[in-house]
Design a protein that fits this description.
Blueprint lengths: L1 H24 L4 E3 L7 E5 L3 E6 L5 E5 L9 H27 L10 H42 L8 E3 L1 H23 L2
Antiparallel strand pairs: 1-2, 1-5, 2-3, 3-4
Helix pairs in contact: 1-2, 1-4, 2-3, 3-4
GO cellular component, one term: bicellular tight junction
Function: Claudins function as major constituents of the tight junction complexes that regulate the permeability of epithelia.
Membrane topology: Multi-pass membrane protein
Amino acid sequence: MSAALQVTAFGLALLSTLFLLLATCTDCWMVNADDSLEVSHKCRGLWRECVTNMQDGVRTCDQYDSILADHPVKIVVTRTLMIMADLLAGLALAALVLGLDCITFLKEDPCAKLKMCYGAGVILCAGSILGFIGSVWYAVDVYVERAMLVSHNIFLGVHYDFGWSCWLGMAGSTGCFVASVLLTCCLY
């Protein structure tokens, strides 16, 4: 039972970590929702903004200025939290691989392997919390920005909704949290 639970938690943690990495690297955290003519599809991400022409499929991306340049707080905070979540999830995966019962590392000391799985669960929990805060921070800031424009009767012709990268970040964080619960609460 313990080995099956470990392998299940490892599979979930691996998939969720991939989701977090994809969310960090992709560029569709916000997508325009007001293009009624469907001439273009515009996505904003943490690293660049891309526009896809719907008629011919040509995609043009504008890189943001240097990382050291002044950026909106939502981009800086989300970048930082997502990168930290990626690093912690990767570290937890490495510890979890070494702690799995099916791996021969430290085979003579099952107590140490169990502690490695528990430690991986704690690290995974920390990474999931950081990733979830980063994803939700960005989503809430998009919503507040839109609400402020609506409350002041300012219409710019475009409003943004949450993009698939934002949802990927939330799903990856939730999956990492579930894997950490499996490793810390259910393994003993």
